[in-house]
Fold this protein.
Amino acid sequence: MILTSYDLVYMLSFIFGVYILYRFMGIFFNRKKVNKKIELISYFIYYILAVTISIFINIPIIMTIFNLISIFILSYNYTGSINRRLVSVVNIYIVLMISELLAGFIIGLEGIDFSAFEINQYNSIVGVVLSRVISFAGVLIYESYKNIKTGVHIPISKWICIFLIPSSSIYIILIVFSTEGIVFYNKMLITGILLFINFATFYLYDVVSENMMNKIEKAVAEEQNRYYEKQFHTMKNSIDQMDTLRHDFKNHIETLKQLVTIDEKDKAINHMLKISETSLKKNDIYVDTGNVVIDSIINFKINEAEKFSIKCNTKIILPWDLKLNSFEMTAILGNLMDNAIEANKKINEEKRQINFTMKYDRGRLFIRISNPYNQKILKDKNTKKLLTTKKDNSNHGKGISSIKNIVEKNDGLIDIDYDNNIFQVRITLFYNKFIKKKENE
Amino acid sequence: MYKIAICDDEPAICNMIQNVIIDHYEKTDKKIETSVFYSGEKLIESLNKRHTCDLLFLDIELYKISGLVVGEKIRKEYNLESMHIVFISGKTKYHHEVFKIRPLDFIDKPIDKKEVIECINYAMKLDGKTTGTFTFKYNREIYKIPVENIIYIESINKTLHIYCIDGVRKMYGTLKEVAKKLSKYNFVKTHRSYIVNIKMVEVFKSDKLVMSDGSSIPISRTQKYKIHETQNQLQGRIQ
């Protein structure tokens, strides 16, 4: 078989087509942790297979199935949930497909009337190039939606709508073009409308993601306010205590003076011991680094922990004037402490304990928290997410995964291990990445 | 002999720390020498006489010359990069300037005996790994340099450039061999052409290290996790 000039143009333009697909994947998935070699090879294999099939077989329904499966397989280059993959695959495919049809209409394939199940007879050089241009325009439109990649968890009900619209569009197009007796401009109109519906759906997907994110942010902000309020009271209490202490001291010194003058040594020493026992013992402030963000979160959580008679050992060494992103810090520390408290609730009271260390050293912030646990921590093999026996299962997993998201977003490291009934999380954050950029806050 | 200095303007604190050390190490085979300074000036006087120590307990809130100033002098003027400094403080609020001195740890007043011992053991553990001699040949001459003077080693066209506190030396060899020899002294290969003395790192960034001489060493993607992970494990005496 000799390759026609159409085939050659098709092969060339399809390189651009694969690039468009690659850009599309970049919209839906995070390309940060991708093995670039495997990614390149997989796209190359896809290219070879797609070109071969379209030149030698060229039956629309087979091409559709092949492309859907291939795009789905290619999506495994990236991390993401199955829901995300399905939405992306159908969305990408519908844009590519409609672009091809639109190109057909524009160059005026009058009486275009192919059957989905027979060999496609319409080969147009201009059409094939034009369809690439249109799909590239599609990529550019999608790229303007910024909230897609955030990885926010979208409720299943909303997800079904987002998934069903593009997938039924594919079906409608296949049927419309396989049905005889529909006039040309109607077909053109249907395709145009479908394209519009899909862009609109995608816009809604973007908005839904944004809303979900705002919701989460709002929840964290409310949490933060509670911490601050509590910290305010703790600080006020300690100031009040200091005032009382100062007042008492006058009296104590007077008493001591008396005792010393009448040479009552033992009584004087006894009195001094009493002062140090009562007045100078540590007050309600557990953690006092001077860093309001850290102090308020940790003190609030220690207070919570003590309600369940959990012993908290903390060691925090950091500059009080270290500028931290309070939103992200609240999410990380709040979730870490909550998990530790939850785990402790399930074990014997005398064994309950949380060890929390935070240390700043040479541009890095180390966070380490460990606690005993006595439950089956389930690790989902597919997603590597931690699940627990907590009733509100999905919620708990989200705690750890939101910590992970923040840490990874900031180029930090997180390590979770659990042996010998000790659950431990270690986090390393970098000042230049994590904190400094938020200096204007 | 492990030399420990204590500098605090409250004699009671100095004596207490000194007693804790004597009590604890009397029974062990570890030989420890302690010296006490009641002011920053006294300590500086001693440093001027080239008396130094392995570990220094230093009060931040010293009268006249603060612990911060003393610490800065130790690092910048006397170039005592490998001396461990543990700050003693009455408060738990620390200014970020204090961290530039690269303190080993902080202990707050009232002093907990256990913490003092933990700090000493941790310092000794680190020192067991960081002192030694590195021997190499260059142009038929044999060189012996203390490993704690090495800041980093760079491989340029099959020649290894050894950047030390007191200048650059050269040798022929592969970075791989040298990395193997130095790994027990807390040296890490960060990149295909760099080996770094972790103790000499001034700032850790996710993708590079800034060394005490100001040079910036890249970290390759493959080494990133390894370096920062071991660092997190080494960090601090609390497990």
